[in-house]
Amino acid sequence: MKPLLVNTFTASSCIGTGLAATFENLVGQHSGLKRCAFETVDIETHVGEVPGVDAVRLPQNLHKFECRNNRLAELALQQDGFLQAVQQAAGRWGRRRVGVFMGTSTAGILQTELAYRARDPVSGALPSNFEYGTTHNSFSVADYVRQRCRLEGPAVAICCACASSAKAFGSARRMIEAGLIDAALVGGVDSLCLTTLYGFHSLQLTSPAPCRPFDVARDGISIGEAAAFVLLERAPQNAAADSVLLLGIGESSDAYHMSAPHPEGLGARRAMQAALQAAQLEPGDIDYINLHGTGTLSNDRSESQAVTSLFGPTTPCSSTKGATGHTLGAAGALEAVISTLAIQNGLMPGGVRTSTIDPTLMAHYIKDNRRAPTSRVLSNSFGFGGTNCSLIFGRPE
Amino acid sequence: MSLSAYVSGLGVLGPGLSNWPQAAAVLAGRAVYAPAPAVLPTPTLLAAAERRRSGRVVKLALAIALEATSQAGEDPTELASVFSSSGGDGHNCHELCQALSLAGREISPTRFANSVHNAAAGYWSIATGAMAESNVLCAFDASFNAGLLEAMSQVAVDGAAVLLVAYDSEYPQPLHAKRPLPDAFGVAMLLTPQRRATSSARLDAMLTDESFDRMADPALEELRRSIPAARSLPLLRLLARGEAGRAVLEYLDVSRMAVQVAPCT
Predict the structure, then answer these.
(1) Engineering a disulfide at B188: which of B27, B56, B64, B137 sits with its beta carbon 3.0 to 4.6 angstroms away?
(2) ipTM confidence
(3) A/B interface, count of CB pairs below 8 Å
């Protein structure tokens, strides 16, 4: 594929609102996971909650979009000069030549969960002020971002469960390469809600403790929330040496099971292989792998097998979900941002919360931060339905 | 700037429309449109346990995907796909929200796994063994067009065939009052970079400011207006008639999508 320029980016998760705090907490190996006190949830688990989300107010003309998910999007858009950078891109390319590609798994479904509790006792009707299209519907966050940034190019939500916002980069790349647009606002926004907390709990996939990816005693995920955005552009002929490019994308399907990964990670391997091929790189060219690494027994086992079958046992890798929690549909974009920070700062973030690495997992999992030149990073995101996506970011040749 | 692809297989299912040949007869004016509740076939592709659990959107998506691929004699194993739906499985969503509103909040793990927007794509991959990339989109009322843009971009950029599956189904009450889709409707298109023996037309698509087309038949216009995937009807009408022409489809508030149709004769 033709490399794309990462112009500007930002992320807000439980380890930081904006890049400075995020990076500081990666350097300090801090986790943002806390005992779950979200809404009325009565599950023994830890979550990565972003502070201050519900204090955010959307602009008056977009009040129909009011819900936690869009507030989280608004909070993140305000950081790191991102809104201004998007306006500059719109000025440079034209509003119709900038597309919006947002990954989400549950969008603003919390709004519907709350509305179901407030149904009319006689008719069963939902409250009259409940808005479906601009809150619950998956497109709501893409529509919000599009209207907030006054962009007029193609806009779409990518809804591939926990691979959603990684795959959003794939949609953006196809449209830029096809010539429909010149730039893309790519991102992922997913916020805490009862559906995912009780849902993963019903599958016995949530850990009561903060998640410990690749640990011998790992026992499930910690759900987090995040909004992360990347402004991608057609790369110039000679990109500056200090720029970061999206070099490769690989996608695949497991064709195996709705909620369990392929035991040997065949789909995952296929996605990583396709990303390497798209980037015209060899496995040895990758300096660090940001794993999907959710912390469930089967996910980490299958991913470790896929990684070692392709990269062998020496490429440093880690999961940042012990710090951020599993931010579901936002994970791909959040980890794309972390991968970009890793390249810019020569920092391979160690996997926090993991104490004893599972000796049966042969991938080279790092617990401690490494300061080393990091020119190319591969980031994995996999989801329910057996959907897989790997992204490769790196410096220009 | 336009995108090109050949339509090399079609599947349609909706109210009063049971498959592409029958829908084509209606859209070409050779048969009268008689609206009747959509009949969704049992997904025989799936194993018995999965078949029992599959909701209406999965039945709909699998039926049209199968019709489009088998009509073209296409092996789905290495076929990339784009699924696009305005809302996924409304009945499953209702059951989950209902359970979460009650004390105890006991929800079914199967219902949760099936609640992902990409459930139909997942079942298609499991049923056919397709390991190629599959993307799943939502653009509310513009979901068909978003899917067509994505699929045609993919055909153009990757030079490979792509199966587009656009489908919508209704919510039960009380969500139905807030999102009143009357029934299920879906369309699947096998889009190929080159003309094949089964190709019916070449499409050239672009974004435009023109005003969008409506259906002359009031019942078909009502269908086009009320179910997002049925925004494809002006395009399907040209394909059914085997006519050269231009269909302008409703897309986002700021733009429409024009599709030039050139029949393969």
Answers:
(1) B64
(2) 0.98
(3) 204
